[in-house]
Specification:
Distance between the termini: 88 Å
Helix content: 10-25%
Radius of gyration: 34 Å
Number of helices: 1
Number of domains: 2
Strand order of the largest sheet: 3-12-11-6-5-4
Order of helices and strands: EEHEEEEEEEEEE
Strand content: 35-45%
CATH class of the largest domain: Mainly Beta
Largest sheet: 6 strands, antiparallel
Shape: rod-shaped
CATH architecture of the largest domain: 3-layer Sandwich
CATH superfamily of the largest domain: Rieske [2Fe-2S] iron-sulphur domain
CATH topology of the largest domain: Rieske Iron-sulfur Protein
Bound molecules: FE2/S2 (inorganic) cluster
Length: 175
């Protein structure tokens, strides 16, 4: 660093080239800091915002090998649904009645009666679903045979992925 003795006051004055270099370093440091801050902000923003835009493929639940469901005999399958809603992951235990006539096409029923939500059961002797609460009866297709329910059993969407039966446990009303 070049400094000159000021003749009048005895203090040291800075050379013009020192001021230029110092100013350059200050500005360069500030610019670098701004770039780093912007990069960190973008990363952090992406971390917090991206879950809100993620696809909901995880909503599908694997119920097992499709070939293991017995044709003509409804099976009550219990499952755990993990749901990620933006930043919160929750778990819910539920079940579905799975029906197949040929081992290829599947129907999955919401296990709650469409009258007041009681769990119903399969009566193999009568080949009917029976709700014990108010004696409702549904056939294998979920249609109301007798009793107070206002509509057939609600269904879940199904699909086969590989050789696995998948359901989307969000009940859909059948008119
Ligand atoms: S809740 Fe099933 S018949 Fe009423």
């Amino acid at each position: 660093m070049s400094e000159k003795e000021d003749a009048g006051c005895g203090c040291k004055a800075k050379a013009p080239e020192d001021i230029g270099r110092r100013d350059f370093l200050t500005r360069a440091t500030a610019a670098l800091g701004a770039v780093i801050a912007a990069a960190l902000s973008a990363t952090g923003l992406g971390y917090f915002v991206s879950p809100a835009f993620q696809r909901r493929d995880e909503d599908w639940v694997d119920l097992g090998r499709a070939g293991e469901f017995k044709a003509g005999a409804p099976s009550l399958v219990e499952f755990t649904q993990r749901r990620r809603d933006a930043w919160v992951t929750s778990e819910r235990r539920s079940s579905a009645w799975v029906v197949t006539a040929d081992g290829k096409n599947f129907t999955a029923f919401d296990p709650r009666c469409t009258h007041l939500g009681c769990p119903y059961r399969w009566d193999s002797g009568a080949s009917r679903f029976v709700c014990p609460c108010h004696t409702a009866v549904f056939d294998l297709d979920g249609k109301v045979v007798s009793g107070p329910p206002p509509r057939p059993l609600d269904q879940y969407q199904t699909k086969i992925a590989g050789n696995r039966l998948m359901i989307l446990p969000k009940a859909e009303e059948k008119a």
